[in-house]
Request: fold
Amino acid sequence: MVGGVEELLTVGRVAELAGVSVRTLHHYDEIGLVHPSARTAAGYRAYSADDVERLTEVLAYRRLGFGLREIADLVDDPATDAVAHLRRLRGLLLEQRDRAAATVSAIDRELKARSMGIRTTSEEQLRVFGAQLYEAIGSAYPATRHTEPRIAAKVWEALGDARTVLNVGAGTGNYEPPDRDVTAVEPSAIMRAQRPAGAARCVAASAEALPFEDQSFDAAMAFSTVHHWQDPIAGLRELRRVARRVVVFTHDSSDAGWLHRFWLTRDYLPEVGDLVVGRPLVDELARSIGARIEPVLIPWDCADGFFEAFWRRPEAYLEEHVRRAVSIWTRVGPDAERRAVAGLAEDLSSGRWAERNRDLVDLDAAELGLRLLVA
Ligand SMILES: C[S@@+](CC[C@H](N)C(=O)[O-])C[C@H]1O[C@@H](n2cnc3c(N)ncnc32)[C@H](O)[C@@H]1O
Reply:
């Protein structure tokens, strides 16, 4: 709208600006997907601002690979406004970017294997393409990812006297309290398949749409998973809906200096900063479920090999199997990974790392922004 007069666009102009053919726009009109609802002074059909908004949503979903019928359901959903569509599209695009990065890494590994004359199995080859992030990287997870008892004690204490516990984004079952009645939720088939025999029952679902009645658990927990959710706030509200108590372990990237707190991101892998752009901050997450925030220190010999776990054991990051069990290394892409590892290797052998990080040697635990949210 300019000066109260709505700007109308002809079909030709819309096609030109949107980079689609006039024929496509006519087709969308014919099937009732995007109808140019206005008329120009000369009587030609024209697109109003609302029509254009709808068209941009349709085109964005189309580029993500949705079918026209699915798109019609999405854009016609009265519960989803333009902002909700933008948020959803953003999440889908990030997921697509992460999946592409995971696929590039997997292809690099495949190329390396072939150059050494090794043929991967058909199953491994299939897993590389078209998979979700954890479908691509999940099989490397159990090598270094185990329950860290000192952090688990904090989570279990925060669960209070809950008898029934829902573990969302449960992965292979780490941190599930052994003395309570646990139900797990995990969207990745690869992760579900790696749950040990005798682990709690696991449902294939996502945090954002939990298939449970309101208040059906005493507590819900989510450990090291919220940063993967398409819509973290919607997911946390779901946890809140189905449980009386919510316990979340995640990290805080809200203060300006967080990237500099950990030497690995500060000196070798600043690309981690790009991964959190546009993601909700820990305060927003906490507010969405009325949670209090508690810092969690990482012991120097942490048993769970998450990204920050080896802060006092830098050589660990040179190990391929350590990196493959942490999604960040795949998400930053192979170039950044190679550069970071080469830089660290060089600084370790020259003594530069030790020089720069002299103050860490005497620390038994470090504050690197990990937080427990308890509601
Ligand atoms: C870093 S792993 C953590 C697994 C487990 N909680 C642990 O601490 O070992 C993250 C998990 O979140 C899962 N995940 C990704 N998107 C999810 C979503 N929207 N809802 C629930 N879980 C999700 C992944 O499949 C993966 O298993």
Residues 9-76 form a domain with the Multidrug-efflux Transporter Regulator; Chain: A; Domain 2 fold (CATH 1.10.1660.10). Residues 134, 145, 168-172, 174-175, 186-188, 191, 206-208, 223-225, 228-230 surround S-adenosylmethionine (CB under 6 Å). Residues 291 and 375 are 4 Å apart (CA to CA).
